């Protein structure tokens, strides 16, 4: 019951937040100089006017804003002004399919490997495995993903000919991009889990668990890991959004038709509808992720659940 | 009475960067069935290390059991395998800790933390175990145990948490309960309740208890016998009556004199034991208390005193018991040292 109320309240806040983001972006975007038209000077004024009229760009800004909101409520993001009049929704979904697949794969792989590495490092705290995990973590954080992408593409793709170097189509095409994105996730997760795990293993309730006669596995997985997950979940949220929305660089290196390029392109050419589409998409994704992370917190840590319900 | 636990010549050390800390240096004591033995002594005297060694909860490394035997129900706990020890822990041997605020897992319901050992040791199904857990919570005096079992530790007060800890510890009817300063972190009124609860449950189940504390008031309330430890060795042991009313070791005199008492004049000052315990990396070769002892003789700093039998239950390790030692000062410590200055 508390949970439903909490969820509904949070949903309300999310809608308000989204509205603020949309409004701010809308007016900022229109304050940029220029129009979506290319070669504007060469167009006869009549044609230029007609185009502007068609897209409703001659209306006063508040009217355009209201029109835009009206369509948005109906779920219509409009048509792209530069990509041959394609529907923005369609473009985003298409691009997101590729980006999210690669991202999710990287995320799942990275979290699982990072978790194991972190736990193993904490248990062998100070030993060989701990040192290896440290090296992996430092390398994963400090080597940029495009270097990783380049190396993987060269060695695995060109030298050993194991996987395709680039392009999109079969499952094999997704492996290298996911791998190059996952290193950062592995690094982050393993560090957070290790640090927290070392701390948790030192807590009094670990002694209680041991005094109950529980086996090593029950102690580590049932008692320690859950308590060690809390900070890791915090970083997981923003990390997930970044990775799922795709890395422009990695997508460019592997020539993947992802969402990454829209982020950059749309602003350069003043593609108003695409800018708004990308912004809304990104904002919704972040809001939902933050919400999911908060729910996860509650599942992992009952103390947070209670505090949230009281709000 | 038969001995349930018999600790013989136990030596436990910890390796540190500065050298080997000899935390426990030859401890002997026993616990009979159904009896409460209190181990008293100041911080760092080795009482907690001794109890955790019995449970085999000392992290190894850095801890090492150098020597000794711990006989418990026909086994030597120093020698049993880790797997066997897991079976003994929580079922035959149980422990409760000092700080109930941190001794319960914050992300697991209290009920689940109780059922865990029931499922592990008594092989109960989960619904049976849950019923048993509720029963246990009721037994330790937690109101509306059905709903409490579903709650998390942070929804419990300190006293309630310690009650829950007791429920966990007693869930499988252990033969021996080790309580490591169970009341130190609690309010005085709650302390009394917890001690009463332990006494009541002991009567009901016949559990033996090792109570580790530096609170002599608690000792007087619950203990049958007392073991006084200092710097890793047992300096005096005897029945509650013997140790409280006829203490023989100057350290025990000091402990008694530093305890506030209602039957003394309130003008009378409490006498602290001045100085601090010796460094256990290189412990003195003689009596460890010699440096702080007002009655120390030359022999005390040179040779470790042997255990002297005063009665079948009362032993003391002090050179003052030697026939050649001066006897005059013996009673000076007992009543707060008024004959002294």
From TrEMBL, chain B:
Q: What is its main location?
A: membrane
Matching PROSITE patterns? ABC_TRANSPORTER_1, ABC_TRANSPORTER_2
> One MF term from GO for this chain?
ATP hydrolysis activity
Q: Which GO terms describe its biological process?
A: peptide transport
Topology versus the membrane: Peripheral membrane protein
One GO CC annotation, please? plasma membrane
Keyword tags:
ATP-binding, Cell membrane, Membrane, Nucleotide-binding, Transport
Its annotated compartments are: Cell membrane
ABC transporter domain location is 7-256
A Pfam family the protein falls into:
ABC_tran
Recorded hits in Gene3D superfamilies, A to Z, give: P-loop containing nucleotide triphosphate hydrolases
Member of which family? Belongs to the ABC transporter superfamily.
Q: What is this protein called?
A: ABC transporter ATP-binding protein
